[in-house]
């Protein structure tokens, strides 16, 4: 499975940004986004199963939304009310989920998101 992100860039605090990811084959996989800020561990932003089950990190709840389109083999991350602490490299992944646990198997190359004034 190959993944490729697009849509990263710079945005001011309070702004919005939408990341997209093209997946060679998305059906039946759970999709998820991770991020890694400088000198911090990589963290799970959230996931969306093929059946519609979701989980988000507390730090992004009610601000970020993951969506998917199985007909187009794409997944998106809509980010609103962005904060400087959201600055990171964002990765799209596909994998398996069991209840609230997610196990990534395939990774994109990452795209930089910078939130600053």
How would you sum up this structure, described in words?
The protein is mainly beta and 117 residues long. The chain is built from no helices and eleven strands. Strands 2, 4, 5, 6, 9, 10 and 11 form a seven-stranded mixed β-sheet that branches. Strands 1-3-8-7 form a four-stranded antiparallel β-sheet, with no helix packed on it. Strand 7 and strand 8 (74-79) form a beta hairpin.
Keywords:
four-stranded antiparallel beta sheet; 0% helix; seven-stranded mixed beta sheet; 117 residues; 56% strand; mainly beta; 11 strands
Element-by-element helix/strand order? EEEEEEEEEEE
* Amino-to-carboxy terminus distance: 37 Å
Label the structural class.
Answer: mainly beta
The unreliable regions are none
User: Biggest sheet, in brief?
Assistant: 7 strands, mixed
- The rough form would be described as globular
**Helix count from the secondary structure assignment:** 0
Care to give the gist of this entry?
The protein is mostly beta strands.
Describe how the helices and strands are arranged.
Blueprint: E1 3-6, E2 9-11, E3 17-23, E4 30-36, E5 43-48, E6 54-56, E7 64-69, E8 74-79, E9 88-98, E10 101-107, E11 111-115
Parallel strand pairs: 2-11
Antiparallel strand pairs: 1-3, 3-8, 4-5, 4-9, 5-6, 7-8, 9-10, 9-11
């Amino acid at each position: 499975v190959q993944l490729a992100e697009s849509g990263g860039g710079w945005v001011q605090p309070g702004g919005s940004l939408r990341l997209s990811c093209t997946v060679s084959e998305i059906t039946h996989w759970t999709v998820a986004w991770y991020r890694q800020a400088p000198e911090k561990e990589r963290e799970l932003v959230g996931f969306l199963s093929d059946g519609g089950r979701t989980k988000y990190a507390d730090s992004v709840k009610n601000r970020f939304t993951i969506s998917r389109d199985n007909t187009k083999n794409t997944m998106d991350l809509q980010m609103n009310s962005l904060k400087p602490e959201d600055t990171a490299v964002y990765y799209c992944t596909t994998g398996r989920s069991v209840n609230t646990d997610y196990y990534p198997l395939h990774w994109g190359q990452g795209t930089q998101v910078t939130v600053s004034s």
